[in-house]
Amino acid sequence: MVNATKGLFISCDIPMAQFIISLNASLPASQRFIIHILDSTHLFVQPQVAVMIRSAISEFRDQNSYEKPA
Asked: Who contacts 35 (Cβ-Cβ below 8 Å, separation ≥6)?
């Protein structure tokens, strides 16, 4: 018998994958969204968390970007 799960495939570099994995680990067990870690640059996650992941990445990038002083 075949089991199928609907999800979102994420392909990214290793540091971003580690960020998403740590974001997942920081949540309570009932809210974790990673279905399967395929390899170091590919993740399979629940489809409803796409917006949350994008906003967390955007916030992370904003915190870690350099702005030249005026």
From this structure: 5, 7, 44, 45, 46
Q: Is the pLDDT of residue 25 over 80?
A: yes
pTM of the model: 0.83
Q: Is 64 helix (H, G, I), strand (E, B) or coil?
A: coil
Computed over its alpha carbons, how large is the radius of gyration of the chain?
Answer: 14
Rounded distance, CA 66 to CA 54, Å?
Answer: 20
**Residue from 6, 10, 5, 4 nearest 44 by CA:** 10
Whether the Cβ atoms of residue 60 and residue 19 lie closer than 8 Å to each other: yes
Across the range 25-40, mean pLDDT stands at 95
Return the pLDDT at 68: 81
